[in-house]
Amino acid sequence: MVLNDEAESELRLFKSMLSKARLIVTTNYDDFIERELNNAIKVRVGNQGLFEPAGDLNELYKIHGSIKNPDSIVITSKDYEGLERTSAIVNAKILSLLTESPILFIGYSLTDKNVQSLLTDLANNMPFEIEEAAKRIGVVKYESGKSDITESMMDTPFGVHYTQLSTDNYSKIFSAISKVNQGFSPLEISKYQNAIKKIIEVKGKKGELKQVLTSFVDLKNLPHELENKNLVVALGDNRYLYRFPDYVDYVKSYFLGESPMPTEIAMKFIMSMSVQSPLPVSRFIGKQLGLNESDKNKLNKRLQKFNSLKVIKEYVNVPRTAEDKLKEYSEKTLVEILELDDGIKAPVKLAFFIENIERIDNIEFQSLIEYILKNKDDGFIKKTNTRKLFMAYSLKTEPIIKSID
After folding, report:
1. Rounded distance between C-alpha atoms, residue 283 and residue 366, angstroms
2. Mean pLDDT of the chain
3. Could you give the percent of the chain with pLDDT greater than 70?
4. Most buried of 60, 121, 241, 379, CB within 10 angstroms?
5. What is the tens place of the pLDDT at every residue in 225-251?
């Protein structure tokens, strides 16, 4: 099939409109709709899926069957008789999904018996006046040569009132619906439903879920990560959604800058820490928002406690034998020295780096900081001498603030 330019443009708008639909119902047998949506929509055929939990989003109901399942096709009188036996429950299923959304019929004259049955059930249960009910059901009527759209309220012999949209300009209708701002469209949300469902089923049953933040754009990576992380997912369109950070979260954000921590969250974390615990804070001083006097006093005690490299050096110790051996590694980088299997424990090596920090190039020291944060586990990062190392690097490279007003 070859489409002319006008038809191609209309088809693009049609697909865009379909992506806005939370539910599509068709009596067509072909697979045109699912193909145009790249099979990203859940397809229900006949009474299939009646007793499965409805996703309420991005579903296609083919109430007269599908060419992919010839036995499901409703075309003969006998087929229609069989359909009548299940139409009530099919209608109930579809109606439960349609009660919160307006309905638009395209390509129907409402003469189909099953469609009439569906609409009659809907109309009988609508708690609205006639005018309001008509606004919830739209029927597009083809009128040759009519480029604009005329709206008129209509009724039917079976008691259904609806709004008729008369036009020859279907592109205008498709375009208008495509511009509806839903935030995330049903098609977009449905892409991630299976990932979220898998998280809950795999980890939730084991009682292993912990609070971990992920952004909407990262959800496509979740199934791969499930082997190593127990997740609870929060969806939102704000830039920051945070669980309260721990020390590792804080220093990774502070030094790596890959996930900048909002000042409000950082200050709350700083205030939760003992003033005796070494913690880099200079980057947030001057940005503090609405600190009360108690918090200011606590922050000033921290600044006074850690006001020079000398303070940090006084609290580390390197045995003479280890120090002599480490001085022999002058040709090696700090990372290479840290990873050497030479019998000297890592905390001792970190103490050596702190003692000699003023003689070590800042770029070299920064490489060590980044290596530790990206390659070592949380337990290593939380060790006392690792904390002192981060504090020493901050004191050497950042302004030393004595106090705040």
Report:
1. 16
2. 79
3. 75
4. 60
5. 444 544 444 444 443 444 567 899 899
- Say what the pTM is: 0.45
Residues counted in the chain: 405
